[in-house]
């Protein structure tokens, strides 16, 4: 339920994959081996017991696999058919339920929350949109990364709202962005009022069933809806079974459990815009701005950003015993789902981030050959040599006698070039901008180039990496 964690993991020894399901041949046969290698290595580095992964490419589920142990005592291997808790990834389902109700004319994103729930602080001033975008000012009832004693007892949404929705706001509505689970308890209550049925019944009827997400269950009512056991760890100590939260705390802010493959069905619907109307998807994925005009990097229940030139709709999730990551690249018809069974752990984000790098490297058919070509050009410049047929007239003018001398005298002493790797690709001013990392024994350098459509280089720059 709490916000997601972005941490990188070191790659270490690789174990054999468990229970792989390959649904169709990927564009690169190496990709599936890379996914297995990444997933197993991150689990080994972090000590997280297991992960289940699903990958969408070209708008289709192309690969699903599970790694490690879903249960430790007795030991049970993880399987792609097992459900894991999604945590705050559930929030985009709540936001979509609101959008479906708006399509039916039963509410508007610009309605004040007081229209549905009386007595909230500034309820006549705060809109449904501000609740969904975390710009309302309502204080978060669960910012901690552990389960507090009061949360082990059941609670009603109204009780949460009475305590956290009727106290002083943390800030003036619309003036700041601050993640708050309280917002989504309020949103779930609005869904019930507008739909005239229980929250989960609406989610099931209007979203889960139409998309064929048959594994989905209500983790809030029954924590055993997750097939994997959730674990916690104190510092670097051993794993312990995580405590269960009482019913009501997860609810509209984080109540879903399902398989990674079923969550991928949701991602495919987002790619194809098949569940909501186009205007609703725009509202879901548009960056919400504050009253001062600053962008929040958040839509309605999802983070939105540009990641290495790719439009990314993303959210993580964390509940007691589970951490999850869901990344959708709508313009690239791609998505990555990673679900793990340890809370407050970095594995899901690290696995997803590294798979994304491999996925887009595979999709870019010229990336590897370009990497080799630019490395060769870079090595030539280290020797004070240049093949001017590779460069535009502007770049050839830049590489005059002084530039070539400085490139050679400053780069040659670094010794053997141990690795040269593309780290990103985007567009800039009509050129393809490629960034590389050049690693030597004592230091690493950033190399970036501008490439014309004909392959000639308009620019090659080098700078130290801090």
Structure description:
This protein has 466 residues and is an alpha+beta fold. It has two domains: 280 residues, Beta-lactamase (3-Layer(aba) Sandwich); 98 residues, Nuclear Transport Factor 2, Chain: A (Roll). The protein is built from 13 helices and 17 strands. Strands 1, 2, 3, 4, 10, 11, 12 and 13 form an eight-stranded antiparallel β-sheet that branches. A hairpin with a 2-residue loop joins strand 14 and strand 15. Helix 1 packs antiparallel against helix 10, helix 2 crosses helix 6 and helix 4 packs across helix 5. The longest helix is centred in the N-terminal third of the chain and has 18 residues. The N terminus is likely disordered.
- Identify low-pLDDT runs: 2-28
- Supply the helix-strand structural class: alpha+beta
H/E element sequence = EHEEEEHHHHHEEEHEHHEEEEHHHHEEEE
The share of residues in helices is: 25-40%
List the defining traits of the structure above.
466 residues; Beta-lactamase; Nuclear Transport Factor 2, Chain: A; eight-stranded antiparallel sheet; four-stranded antiparallel sheet; 13 helices; 17 strands; 31% helix
Give me the secondary-structure topology.
Layout: E1 18-22, H1 29-46, E2 50-57, E3 60-72, E4 75-77, E5 84-85, H2 91-103, H3 128-132, H4 157-164, H5 181-195, H6 199-208, E6 217-218, E7 231-233, E8 239-241, H7 251-254, E9 256-258, H8 260-272, H9 278-285, E10 303-307, E11 310-319, E12 322-329, E13 334-340, H10 347-363, H11 367-382, H12 393-398, H13 401-411, E14 419-428, E15 431-439, E16 444-451, E17 457-464
Antiparallel strand pairs: 1-3, 2-3, 2-13, 3-4, 5-9, 6-9, 7-8, 10-11, 11-12, 12-13, 14-15, 15-16, 16-17
């Amino acid at each position: 339920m709490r916000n997601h964690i972005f941490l990188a993991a070191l790659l270490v020894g690789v174990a054999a994959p468990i229970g792989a399901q390959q649904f169709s041949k990927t564009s690169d046969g190496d990709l599936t081996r890379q996914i297995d290698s990444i997933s197993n290595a991150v689990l080994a580095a972090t000590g997280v017991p297991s992960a289940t992964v699903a990958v969408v490419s070209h708008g289709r589920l192309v690969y699903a696999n599970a790694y490690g142990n879903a249960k430790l005592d007795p030991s049970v291997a993880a399987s792609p058919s097992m459900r894991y808790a999604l945590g705050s990834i559930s929030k985009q389902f709540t936001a979509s339920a609101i959008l479906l109700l708006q399509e039916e004319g039963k509410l508007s994103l610009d309605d004040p929350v007081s229209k549905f729930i009386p007595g909230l602080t500034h309820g006549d001033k705060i809109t449904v949109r501000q609740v969904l975008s975390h710009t309302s000012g309502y204080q978060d009832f669960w910012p901690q990364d552990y389960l507090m004693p009061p949360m082990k007892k059941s609670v009603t949404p109204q009780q949460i709202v009475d305590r956290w929705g009727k106290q002083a706001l943390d800030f003036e509505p619309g003036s700041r962005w601050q993640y708050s689970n309280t917002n989504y308890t309020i949103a779930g209550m609005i869904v019930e009022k507008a739909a005239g049925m229980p929250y989960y019944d609406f989610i099931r009827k209007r979203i889960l069933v139409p998309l064929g997400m048959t594994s989905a269950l209500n983790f809030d009512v029954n924590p055993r809806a997750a097939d994997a056991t959730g674990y916690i760890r104190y510092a670097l100590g051993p794993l312990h079974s995580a405590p269960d939260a009482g019913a009501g705390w997860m609810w509209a802010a984080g109540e879903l459990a399902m398989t990674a493959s079923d969550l991928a069905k949701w991602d495919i619907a987002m790619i194809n815009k098949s569940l909501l109307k186009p205007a609703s998807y725009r509202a879901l994925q548009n960056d919400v701005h504050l009253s001062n005009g600053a962008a929040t990097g958040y839509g309605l229940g999802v983070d939105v950003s540009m990641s290495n030139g790719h439009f990314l709709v993303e959210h993580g999730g964390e509940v007691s015993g589970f951490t999850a990551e869901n990344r959708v690249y709508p313009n690239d018809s791609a998505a990555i789902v990673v679900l793990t069974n340890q809370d407050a752990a970095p594995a899901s984000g690290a696995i997803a981030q590294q798979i994304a790098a491999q996925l887009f490297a595979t999709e870019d058919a010229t990336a590897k050959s370009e990497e080799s070509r630019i490395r060769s050009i870079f090595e030539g410049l280290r020797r004070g040599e240049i093949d001017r047929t590779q460069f535009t007239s502007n770049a050839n003018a830049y590489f005059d006698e002084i530039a070539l001398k400085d490139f050679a005298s400053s780069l040659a002493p670094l010794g053997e070039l141990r690795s040269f790797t593309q780290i990103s690709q985007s567009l800039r001013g009509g050129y393809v901008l490629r960034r590389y990392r050049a690693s030597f024994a004592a230091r690493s350098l950033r190399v970036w180039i501008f490439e014309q459509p004909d392959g000639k280089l308009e620019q090659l720059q080098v700078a130290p990496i801090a």
